[in-house]
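Wed. Picked up where I left off yesterday with 3-oxoacyl-[acyl-carrier-protein] reductase. The coffee machine is broken again, so keeping this brief.
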Amino acid sequence: MIDLSGETAIVTGAAQGFGAETATRLGEAGANVVVVDVQTEKGQGVADDLAQEGVETLFVECDVTDRESVEEMVAAAEERFGSVEILVNNAGGSGGETFQEIDQEAWQFGLDLNLTGPFNCSKAVMPGMLEHGNGRIVNISSMAGRNVTVNGNPSYTASKWGLIGLTKHAARDLGPDIRVNALCPGGSPRGPMGRFVEPEDVANGVLYLVSDLSEFIDGTILEVDGGGHLNPSAEDLDLDYSEVEEDS
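Structure written out below (C-alpha cells, as returned):
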C-alpha cells in the first residue's frame, strides 16, 4: 500500500477531470492536498469533498501562467502545511485551430498554459524541495507530445513536446533531491486495451510516479494510453484532453 502520510501535494488544474481524480487519489494515500485552479467554485468543491473524506486540504485560486500568482500559491501551501513534497503539473488545454487558422494570440496562449505554467510552478516549489530533498514533480504531457494532436491546435502539440523536453532537462539538473517525470495520457478503441484513457488511469500513474515504488525512476515518460499508439488511426493520436478545459 502506498502511504504518503505527512507529505503535501500540489495539483494544478484540479477542479475536474484528471486533476480532480489525481487530487482524490493522492488524498486517499494520505497526502495533504492543495487543489489549484482558476475555476473557484469547482476547485473549492473538490477541496470540500476531500475534506469530507478526512483529507487535509486547501484550495488556492491560481493562474499558472502568472509567475506572481504561482509564487503566492506555493507560499500559501507552505504556510499551511510547512513544506511541499509533490507537484503535479496538470493544468492545460487547447483550442481546435489548424495551422492555417491559428493566430499569434492562440499560439502564445497554448505555450503559456501548457509549457510556461509547469515551468512557473516547478521553479516556485524548487527551493523548498531542494532544501528538504525527496521532491517529486510529475508533468502531465500528452500522447500529442509523442506524435501530433488531431483535436487540438499546433500550439498544443508543440507545448506538449516541449513539456517532455523540460521534464528531462529538469530531471538532469535537479536530481537527486527532486525527481521529475512526465505522464502522457492517450488511448484508442483500436488499441490493445480497446478504450480511451480515464481519469483513474492518470491518477494511478501519478501515484506510482510519486511513490517509493518509483524511487529510481527519473526523467522518464510514462505513456498511459493502453497501447493505443501501437496501431493508431489519425483520430486516435490524441484523445486525452477531453477531461481538461482551459485551466490555467
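Quick read: The chain has one domain: 8-98+111-243.
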